[in-house]
Write a structure and sequence with these properties.
The structure is a single chain. By secondary structure, this protein is mainly α. The chain is 86% helix and 0% strand. The chain is built from three helices and no strands. Helix 1 packs parallel to helix 3 and helix 2 runs antiparallel to helix 3. It starts with a helix and ends with a helix.
């Protein structure tokens, strides 16, 4: 391998190592988040509260959109990602109420 090729390979390995570490952080962060949303779902079920809270969801989407813009992340992607998470949470809350 030539020096530029070796340098590119080393940089690629560094980026992949960082990506792997960040993927692990995402998984553990999502797990922690879902522990809390499961507790919220239990409280909602115990108190006959609706599984979804559209006002809270809209506020969260707006807040995450602002955070995404500040972090130089595509806000449309952030909205889609959060919408997916919210749908999963609502599904869990509905299951807890069944």
């Amino acid at each position: 391998m030539t020096d530029p090729t070796q340098r590119a390979a080393a940089l690629l390995a560094e980026h992949r190592s960082s990506i792997d570490r960040l993927d692990a952080i995402l998984v553990f962060t999502l797990a922690e988040r879902f522990k809390h949303t499961q507790a919220v779902g239990k409280l909602k079920a115990e108190h006959a509260l609706p599984p979804s809270d559209p006002a809270r969801e809209a506020a969260q989407i707006a807040r995450l959109t602002d955070l995404a813009e500040g972090a130089d992340l595509d806000p449309a992607f952030a909205k889609k990602f959060l919408a997916f998470i919210i749908q999963e949470v609502i599904k869990h809350h509905e299951q807890q109420q069944a």
